[in-house]
Write a structure and sequence with these properties.
mainly alpha; about 70% helix; about 0% strand
């Protein structure tokens, strides 16, 4: 337990140093001292690639988890009502999984698309 607490304190200390460094860089940008013309986040492409890898490994892990748990699914229903309920459950699971996969795929790839457009300014509409 002491080892875990020590390890977590080291990790959180390193993260706090990183956040302080990032804040100082942002403060420099906002005060006008640093005018190199790039986005505030210098790790834009690294974050985009990390999100793509997260999407890929998350999809693989989700498929593996489903296939690995398949033998533990409930057996065939004993009644006609149970069979209809099972079919309704699997149909709704298929629709929800399809929508989840499509929406998250679009979100992750949109992030990669946006990361390549560093020079473009965004327009914020009031209201």
């Amino acid at each position: 337990m002491n080892f875990l607490i020590g390890l977590l304190s080291i990790v959180f200390f390193a993260l706090s140093i990183a956040v302080i460094g990032k804040s100082m860089k942002l403060n420099k940008k906002l005060s006008g001292e640093d005018t190199d013309g790039y986005a505030l986040d210098s790790a834009n492409n690294v974050n985009a690639i990390g999100m793509l890898l997260f999407w890929l490994f998350g999809t693989i892990a989700g498929v593996w988890s489903f296939l690995h748990a398949r033998p533990d699914f409930l057996p065939i229903a004993a009644s006609e009502h149970g069979l209809k309920t099972d079919n309704m459950f699997w149909t709704s699971m298929a629709v929800v999984t399809f929508a989840f996969f499509i929406s998250n795929t679009l979100l992750f790839f949109f992030r990669i698309y946006i990361s390549s457009r560093q020079k473009q300014k965004s327009n914020v509409l009031p209201g």
